[in-house]
Write a structure and sequence with these properties.
heterodimer, A: alpha/beta, Elongation Factor Tu (Ef-tu), domain 3, Rossmann fold, 2 domains, seven-stranded mixed sheet, six-stranded antiparallel beta barrel, 5 helices, 16% helix, globular, B: eight-stranded parallel β-barrel, four-stranded antiparallel sheet, iron-sulfur (chain A), FAD (chain A), 2Fe-2S (chain A), flavoprotein (chain A)
Chain lengths: 257, 304
């Protein structure tokens, strides 16, 4: 973990709500090893109201360019300020934080399910799988086609399935209604997104005897285990989602009780 | 070279900057970010006789220039601390001070007795001001009688430096401060968090599972400074001031109001290295103003 200033290399508006911001260490420090599922805490500068940093998952690491990609949804004053940082601007991060998804050690059928901005860590996870000789499948959901972000990036690393609530892209409905879930038998499912979606995915996995990991988005203050605010109720009691998560095997959670 | 050393009870602090309980874990959480040995002291997470799971999620709500928390003293209990955490932290080159909380006077006594036996535990901070537990905590700190009683009983079993952490959720903080001074407290620390609440207007539900919680951060700083100044004129024992300190200017403000030392709290979450920057800033301020020792500034706000 470290605190470091980054320079915004690019800040791309993906739709009315989401920005893809690519950052590199301001002093050209070489990025440390990072794992899919980990996150950063972004300082919100020059904002009288916003006090806390904003936890954002690592969308992708481009080792060649020494860049971290951050997919950010504008949901309030903090994320609005972050998305307003121009190219060349500075962003202060505490990173890398949290645990990571369990990377597969053998071939099999792996499904990566993301909803909304929760698709972010799935790109990094898919790339790491591809580098291990595994072809992951992605199942991404959103309200409409404009909410399914980074499609061409995902297609580079595996097969892409989509659902939209209005039917404008892929199958109409929620991710858990997609036909691939009826047609195929997966060995492992990874999920990140709104909690109702993750609970539905976890239930599907549980009912079909499939191992499943979910990345939680609990509210956080520090992000490194000091404040004990982001706790998740687990079979081992209340534990910090920032240090012992954000990724949990669903067997550790109490969602399906 | 400006003098940064200050004394709190029997403690000689290398500088007046410490970190506040509940915001700094057991110090280890910050070891990647700073040299812990630079700190005047570290107040570790609130510790109780029995383990506590704390309150349900959500426990935190951000508010303008601050945050509400309702952690509820989640900790593994004093025995776990003694067996597993103390051995890890005891050799840090700073004062490690345990914040002690309880539901009954007997809890506080039993906890203090166990900590008194630890060689490298030079002080405890008696938390009679936690707003997030149903029983005990703040209940002790909001009445003069119970604040005095718990201080008196713990004083009997704890011969080392005894600091009492005061609640701001009282009509007159000076009465409580005088009460604990009379019963043998070596210092008071103030303020703990202010009782507050926040409501999500769309769902019309409270933002915290406990409805109310403790407010901290820069939004409370002016009130905390006023309380330190009031207590400074009411007691003779040293004051450890806290409440929204983010930089060296804030720390100096508390010192001018009457604090001998300060604790950095919530801001550790935003800048994990803030405490060390504040030490450097105080040092530079003293040099710039040609003040020989930080002690010369305590309570030296110039009026008129």
């Amino acid at each position: 973990m470290q605190v470091l200033d980054f320079t915004v290399r690019s800040n791309e508006t993906l739709n009315d709500q989401n920005h893809l911001i690519k950052v590199a260490p301001a002093g050209n420090e070489v990025l440390p090893e990072m794992q899919p599922g980990q996150f950063v805490q972004i300082l919100v500068d020059n904002s009288p109201h916003v006090f806390l940093r904003r936890p954002i998952s690592i969308n992708f690491v481009d080792k060649e360019k020494n860049e971290i990609w951050l997919l950010i949804q504008k949901v309030g004053e903090g994320t609005e300020k972050i998305c307003a940082i121009p190219e060349g601007g500075t962003m202060n991060l505490i990173y890398p934080l949290g645990n990571s998804f369990t990377l597969p050690e053998r071939k099999g059928k792996y499904l990566l399910v993301g909803g909304g901005v929760g698709t972010a860590p799935m790109l990094f996870l898919g790339k790491e799988m591809k580098e291990r000789g595994i072809d992951p499948e992605f199942l991404l959901g959103g309200r409409s086609s404009k909410d399914i972000l980074q499609r061409s990036d995902f297609e580079r690393y595996g097969t892409l399935h989509c659902t939209t609530e209005d039917g404008s892209l892929g199958e109409k409905g929620y991710v858990t209604h997609h036909s691939v879930l009826k047609e195929k038998k997966y060995d492992y499912i990874y999920t990140c997104g709104p909690k109702p979606m993750m609970v539905a995915v976890a239930k599907y996995a549980h009912d079909h005897g499939i191992e499943c990991e979910a990345s939680l988005e609990n509210l956080m203050a520090c992000g490194f285990g000091a404040c004990l605010c982001c706790v998740e109720k687990t079979v081992r009691g209340n534990i910090c989602a920032c240090t012992e998560g954000p990724v949990f095997n669903i067997n550790q959670l109490t969602w399906l009780d | 070279m400006a003098g940064l050393e200050v004394h709190i009870g029997d403690l000689k602090l290398k500088n007046p900057v410490m970190t506040a309980s509940g915001t700094f874990g057991y110090g280890t959480e910050y070891a990647d970010f700073i040299d812990l040995g630079r700190l005047g002291g570290i107040f570790v997470k609130g510790t109780t006789l029995a383990p506590r799971q704390g309150n349900d999620y959500p426990r935190m709500a951000e508010t303008p220039s601050g945050m509400l928390n309702a952690v509820g003293l989640q900790n593994k209990g004093v025995d776990y601390f003694v067996e597993h955490l103390y051995p890890v932290i005891k050799d840090y080159d700073t004062h490690m001070i345990v914040n002690v909380s309880g539901s009954t006077v007997e809890d506080y006594i039993a906890c203090a007795e166990k900590l008194a036996d630890l060689d490298k535990m030079p002080a405890i901070e008696l938390n009679i001001s936690c707003p997030n537990v149903k029983e005990g905590g703040m209940a002790f700190g909001t009445s003069c009688q119970s604040a005095a009683q718990v201080t008196r009983e713990v004083r009997k079993v704890f011969p080392k430096t005894l600091i009492v952490k005061l609640s701001p959720n009282v009509t007159d903080v000076t009465e409580i401060a005088r009460g604990v001074e009379d019963e043998g407290a070596d210092a008071v620390s103030l303020v703990n968090t202010f009782l507050g609440m926040a409501i999500d207007v769309e769902s019309r539900r409270p933002k915290l599972s406990t409805i109310t919680g403790g407010l901290s951060g820069p939004c409370i700083k002016p009130i905390a400074i006023r309380m330190v100044w009031e207590v400074f004129h009411a007691v003779k024992i040293p004051i450890i001031g806290m409440g929204g300190i983010c930089n060296w200017q804030d720390a100096i403000e508390f010192i001018l109001a009457g604090a001998t030392a300060v604790q950095i709290g919530t801001y550790n979450f935003i800048d994990p290295a803030a405490s060390v920057k504040i030490i450097d800033g105080i040092h530079d301020y003293l040099e710039r103003h040609q003040i020989a020792s930080v002690n010369d500034l305590v309570g030296k706000m110039i009026v008129q």
